[in-house]
Backbone:
C-alpha cells in the first residue's frame, strides 16, 4: 500500500532533516554517522535546485567512500569551519554573530538574541558545548526540537500549540537562519575540498528555503492575522 | 601626604568601559604599508608556487628521513604488500607492528603517507591481480616506479588524439535511470512518485607495493649499516658488542635499566660522559636492536655478532 503524504509525514521528514543537518555541523563525522549516511536515500527532483544539488553531491561522494573517507572528512571539517588563521575570512565560520557583525566577531548581538529565544523556549546549551549558542548546529537543533514539540502537540490535537511552535520556527528562519545561512553556504563552497561539505552547503541553503515556504503555506492564516495586527 | 596614583595618569590613558564616545563608529585600522591584513579583512590570496614533483625514490627517502621512528614499520608495511592486501589485512598487520612501536599515526594515515610518497598504491581495477602482478613484476625487474605506468608512445599519442578537452561530462553525468528507486506516495487523492538514489558501497580495492617501494625495502641492509656504525666509533666497539651480546642472551630482551647497569659505569663512557641510551638508540636505528617490550636482538644484530666472533677467531688463528 502506498504511503500517504500528510502533515505528519512531512513533519517527520523535517525532524529528520534538521537532526541530520545539526549533527553534520556539530562535529566531525564518525563511523556511526557515516554508516547512517550511507544508508540514506537521496531524493532527486525535489523542486529545489539547491536541495537537488546537495543530495546529488552527497550521493556521489558517499558512493565513492573508502577506507580514508573518515580521515578526509575530519580534515575537511577543520579546514571548512575552523580554518588556519585569524583574519576572520579564513573559513566558513559556523556562528551567526560572525556573519552578522561588522567586525566578524563571535558572541555579538545575534548570540544574545538567540540566547533569549532558547530561554523563552525553556532550553539552554550544555555546559560542555563551547562553540557558542549561535552556532549553526545549535540553531538547527533548536528547529529540530521545535518540530518535535509541534508534532507532539499535533498528536494531542492541540493545534494551537502546534501552530505557535511552527510560528516560532517561521520567525526564527526569517529573523536568523535566512539572514546568514546563504553567506555561510557560500563560504563553505569556497573552503570545502570534499563534495561532502559542498553538498551540506547546498542542502542547508535549499532546505531552509523549502522549509520557509512550507511554514508559510501551513501558517498562512496565522501570518495573515499577525500582519493585520 | 602621598598622591593618589590616579592623579599621575592622564585621563586619556584610562579605560572607561561605559564611555560611549566612539559608539557606532567603525574602528578602521590601516597598517603602515597600506595592506589590510587585519582582523575583519581578507588576506590577499597569493597563488602558491607548486613545487616540482619529486620522483618516488626521493619522496620515499624523504618520508623515511622525516619519520625515523616509523621507518622500519613503514618498510615492513611496504614489504607486506608485495602481494596485494586489503585494507583490513593492512590494518591488522599495522596494529600488530604497532604493539611495541606506538605511533600517533593510525594505520590509515600510515598508508596515506606511504601512498603519497609513492611506496604503495591502491588498486581498484576490476581485476587488480593483473595490475598488481605488473607492479610486482616491474619491481622484480628493477624498473622505476614511473615506468610501470607509462603507456607506449604510440598508445599515449592515440589517447591524446581521442580526448576532447571541451567535451561535456567533466562534472555532470546523466543519472543512471536503472539506479533510481521510485516510491509511490498518496497526497490527498493524487498519486505522487518520488525518486531516490541509493548509495552503493564501493568495492574495496587492494594495496600493492610499487616498484620504488619494493626497491626501498630491498635497499635496506641492516647488517652493513650496523657494521658501518661500529666502524665509525671504534672506541666504543666493545660497548656496542657488550650490549648486543647482552640482549642476545635473553629471549625476551633487556630492560633499559639492565643495559644501564651493564655499561654506564664503564671507564670508556666517563669522558665524554655517555649513557647506554646513546648506543641503544643508534643500534635501534640501524636495525640491530628492536623494542619488543624489552630490547631484543634482531636477525641483523645476530649476524653482526656472528661476523665479529668469526673475525676474532680468525685473528686468534692467525696470531
Residues:
Amino acid at each position: 500500500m502506498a504511503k500517504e503524504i500528510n502533515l505528519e509525514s512531512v513533519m517527520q521528514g523535517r525532524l529528520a532533516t534538521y537532526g541530520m543537518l545539526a549533527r553534520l555541523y556539530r562535529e566531525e563525522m564518525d563511523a556511526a554517522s557515516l554508516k547512517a549516511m550511507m544508508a540514506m536515500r537521496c531524493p532527486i527532483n525535489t523542486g529545489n535546485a539547491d536541495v537537488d544539488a546537495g543530495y546529488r553531491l552527497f550521493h556521489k561522494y558517499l558512493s565513492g567512500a573508502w577506507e580514508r573517507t573518515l580521515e578526509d572528512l575530519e580534515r575537511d571539517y577543520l579546514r571548512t569551519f575552523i580554518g588556519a588563521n585569524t583574519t576572520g575570512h579564513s573559513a566558513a565560520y559556523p556562528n551567526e554573530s560572525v556573519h552578522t557583525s561588522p567586525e566578524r566577531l563571535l558572541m555579538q548581538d545575534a548570540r544574545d538574541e538567540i540566547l533569549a529565544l532558547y530561554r523563552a523556549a525553556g532550553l539552554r546549551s550544555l555546559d560542555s558545548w563551547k562553540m557558542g549558542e549561535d552556532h549553526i548546529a545549535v540553531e538547527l537543533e533548536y528547529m529540530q526540537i521545535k518540530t518535535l514539540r509541534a508534532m507532539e502537540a499535533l498528536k494531542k490535537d492541540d493545534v494551537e500549540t502546534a501552530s505557535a511552535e511552527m510560528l516560532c520556527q517561521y520567525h526564527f528562519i526569517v529573523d536568523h537562519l535566512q539572514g546568514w545561512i546563504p553567506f555561510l553556504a557560500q563560504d563553505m563552497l569556497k573552503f570545502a575540498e570534499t563534495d561532502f561539505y559542498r553538498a551540506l552547503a547546498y542542502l542547508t541553503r535549499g532546505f531552509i528555503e523549502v522549509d520557509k515556504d512550507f511554514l508559510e503555506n501551513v501558517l498562512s492564516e496565522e501570518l495573515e492575522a499577525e500582519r493585520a495586527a | 601626604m602621598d598622591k593618589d596614583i590616579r592623579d599621575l595618569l592622564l585621563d586619556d590613558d584610562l579605560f572607561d568601559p561605559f564611555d560611549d564616545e566612539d559608539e557606532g563608529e567603525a574602528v578602521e585600522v590601516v597598517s603602515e604599508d597600506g595592506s589590510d591584513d587585519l582582523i575583519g579583512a581578507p588576506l590577499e590570496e597569493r597563488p602558491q608556487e607548486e613545487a616540482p614533483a619529486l620522483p618516488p625514490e626521493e619522496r620515499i627517502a624523504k618520508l623515511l628521513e622525516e619519520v625515523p621512528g616509523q621507518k622500519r614499520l613503514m618498510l615492513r608495511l611496504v614489504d607486506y604488500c608485495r602481494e596485494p592486501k586489503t585494507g583490513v589485512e593492512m590494518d591488522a598487520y599495522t596494529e600488530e607492528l604497532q604493539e611495541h612501536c606506538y605511533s600517533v599515526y593510525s594505520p590509515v594515515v600510515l598508508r596515506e603517507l606511504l601512498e603519497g610518497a609513492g611506496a604503495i598504491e591502491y588498486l581498484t581495477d576490476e581485476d587488480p591481480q593483473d595490475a598488481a602482478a605488473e607492479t610486482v613484476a616491474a619491481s622484480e625487474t628493477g624498473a622505476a616506479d614511473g615506468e610501470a605506468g607509462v603507456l607506449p608512445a604510440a598508445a599515449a599519442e592515440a589517447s591524446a588524439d581521442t580526448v576532447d578537452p571541451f567535451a561535456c561530462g567533466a562534472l555532470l553525468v546523466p543519472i543512471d535511470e536503472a539506479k533510481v528507486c521510485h516510491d509511490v506516495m498518496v497526497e490527498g487523492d493524487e498519486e505522487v512518485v518520488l525518486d531516490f538514489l541509493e548509495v552503493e558501497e564501493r568495492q574495496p580495492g587492494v594495496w600493492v607495493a610499487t616498484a620504488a617501494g619494493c626497491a626501498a625495502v630491498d635497499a635496506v641492509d641492516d647488517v652493513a649499516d650496523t657494521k658501518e656504525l661500529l666502524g665509525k666509533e671504534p672506541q666504543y666497539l666493545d660497548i656496542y658488542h657488550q650490549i648486543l651480546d647482552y640482549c642476545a642472551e635473553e629471549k625476551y630482551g633487556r630492560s633499559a635499566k639492565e643495559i644501564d647497569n651493564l655499561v654506564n659505569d664503564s671507564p670508556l663512557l666517563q669522558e665524554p660522559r655517555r649513557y647506554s641510551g646513546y648506543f641503544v638508540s643508534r643500534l635501534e636505528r640501524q636495525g640491530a636492536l628492536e623494542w619488543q617490550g624489552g630490547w631484543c636482538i634482531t636477525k641483523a644484530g645476530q649476524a653482526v655478532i656472528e661476523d665479529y666472533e668469526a673475525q676474532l677467531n680468525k685473528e686468534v688463528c692467525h696470531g
Q: What stands out?
A: The beta strands of chain A are 3-4, 41-44. The mean pLDDT of chain A is 93.
